[in-house]
Design brief:
About 85% of the residues lie in helices and about 0% in strands. By secondary structure, it is mainly alpha-helical. The chain has 2 domains: about 1-190, MFS general substrate transporter like domains (Growth Hormone, Chain: A); about 210-425, MFS general substrate transporter like domains (Growth Hormone, Chain: A, Up-down Bundle), CATH 1.20.1250.20. Helix 3 (about 75-100) packs antiparallel against helix 4 (about 105-135) and helix 8 packs parallel to helix 12.
Length: about 425
Amino acid sequence: MKNNKAGVNSWVKRYYTIFAGQSASLFGSGLVQFALVWYLTRETGSATVLALASLAAMLPETLLSPLAGALADRWDRRKVMIFADLAVALTTAILALIFFAGWIEVWHIYAALALRSVGGIFHYSAMNASTRMLVPDEQLQRVAGINQALRASISIIAPPTGALLLGILPLQGVLMIDVATAFLGIAPLLFYEIPQPVRELDERGRHKTSVLQDMKEGFVYIVAWRGVFAISILALVINLLLTPTGSLMPLLITKHFGLGALQFGLMDSTWAFGVVAGGILLGVWGGFKKKIHTAMMGVTGIGLGIVLVGIAPAHLFWLALFGMAFSGLMNPITNGSLSAILQSSVQPEMQGRVMGVLVSLSTLMSPLGLIIAGPLSDVIGIQTWYWASGLLCLLMGVGSFFVPVIMNVENEAAARVETSALAGAGAK
């Protein structure tokens, strides 16, 4: 019993010390994001400039996630996180110096956003792939819930904090805060080792496959594993349907409810507080014994919340607020559980590649959804997009309970692990 307690204390101390450092780094990144967007808004007032800035930050994540995941499986993940954080800190420091010297141009900000995104996706790939090596399988769902709550909390706190700091400091001063928080993220990694998965090497100590082969393996792995592939398709469709609801929200507030910026901010904050509550709930509760049941309950709940937003009459703004809060509450229930399923099911040496492919496909769905939703909403109405996409999400969540390949994904994972272990024993 004593040894078990020592083991629990060991992983808790190591993971949450690293987690605390990463949280500080994420907060600094949130400050920079707000500061740069506000600068571009104030100086240019151009929607095109803001759209290009979003594209600069999004494209590297979409294009490089499979590569970053493959390299995270080949390299020392702790070192990948350290160097990624250093690269982001260096980029931000250089941008701060450019601001200080008065040489700043819009393209400098685009370049910085793109480089920060490259560092961010390498860091995310390594950290996400390391979670399985740091956290016991039975705790993954709780840890994922806490992680979701933290990210939502940062999205609530960072903007007003950034606004306050911009009233006190020049913009380069705010940027240097991010440099300092990056080093807070690095510090725990200098003292704690992160276990690495075992990969087969040739007689010269080199990897038997190329990076391109590893990237291909990530795609093949997802397609071959029926349960994970079905869940991936489900997630992609949901992203396609629901990503536009965030972008269309200002129009829903002004055109349907006849309200203004205050109510738009309230809607946004209500969703974020729902996410925090959902993350805490999952962290305390831990979800159902079968993670897939928790995930599909969350998908159903997200759909129901969006339906309520879509059907709320103009005089019942509170109903839309409730729907948004409920959708936010169910968001970490879904994402945390799906993340825990993948982290506990995918072999440790494949974590980076599989997650990298999924991130790439998911982010690709976001601009595609916007391209479809914008013109279509002009024809069918914004409200129709909300309730129709929410209803489809709800039906997919309920319908998944009757799809054996999805419901048995965790059993399939156990069978694959057992088969892999037997194969390894036979090879010896």
